[in-house]
Amino acid sequence: ETGVTQTPRHLVMGMTNKKSLKCEQHLGHNAMYWYKQSAKKPLELMFVYNFKEQTENNSVPSRFSPECPNSSHLFLHLHTLQPEDSALYLCASGRGGDYGYTFGSGTRLTVV
Amino acid sequence: SQKIEQNSEALNIQEGKTATLTCNYTNYSPAYLQWYRQDPGRGPVFLLLIRENEKEKRKERLKVTFDTTLKQSLFHITASQPADSATYLCALDDNYGQNFVFGPGTRLSVLP
Questions:
Q1: Across the interface, do B102 and A50 touch by the CB < 8 Å criterion?
Q2: Which of A32, A43, B52, B90 has its CA 20 to 30 A from that of B23?
Q3: Beta partners for A6?
Q4: Contact A8/A76 with Cβ under 8 angstroms?
Q5: Out of A93-97, B28-32, B54-58, B79-83, which region has the weakest mean confidence (pLDDT)?
Q6: What is the dihedral of CA B5, A87, A99, A70, to 10 degrees?
Q7: Cβ-based contacts of B36 with chain A (< 8 Å)
Q8: Is the pLDDT at B49 greater than 90, yes or no?
Q9: Is B46 on the interface with A (CB under 8 A)?
Q10: Nearest to A96 among B34, B44, B97 (CB)
Q11: Is A54 or A76 the better-scoring residue by pLDDT?
């Protein structure tokens, strides 16, 4: 375990469903991130939270809605997704500067 | 436009040799550059960070160089082993150490 826990590990959902991805860290990091990783494409930064405040929304469609109730928890709420949203969704935490990110194992999402 | 390129999608080398991976970037002025390892179905794992004022960083069999004039980082694995086979990602910051943008990765295979 990396210290960043993501649930569920796998998710299959229909285009009309609503689901949520969860991320939890107890590393004392102040920043949390959502990244999307599609086949044959680089990791795409989606959202950034610093001390629970959203500091970046990287032009993500509104069918993805993040929530950060405290510095240890991060959610990604999903609704009316498209098949092209199928990807590995990765959560990371960090403390900036000289330190790298700690990633979770990701949620493999399939939209049918 | 901003771009991060990694020398090749895949690299095969013989066990015991030195693997050299390249990361080039355009229209960024990073203060930090990081390297990560990613295994299939897992999140990236942080390996090394190098700052803009550092030329070289080492950790065990790993060595990273950073040339801000050439806008390039080289990542070396000496005495490579089959267990080093993975995808290696470079990442650089676009907000003074806060948000990191990732390259597409190079898939390294070390052949016994």
A1: no
A2: A32
A3: A23
A4: no
A5: A93-97
A6: 150
A7: 100
A8: yes
A9: yes
A10: B97
A11: A76
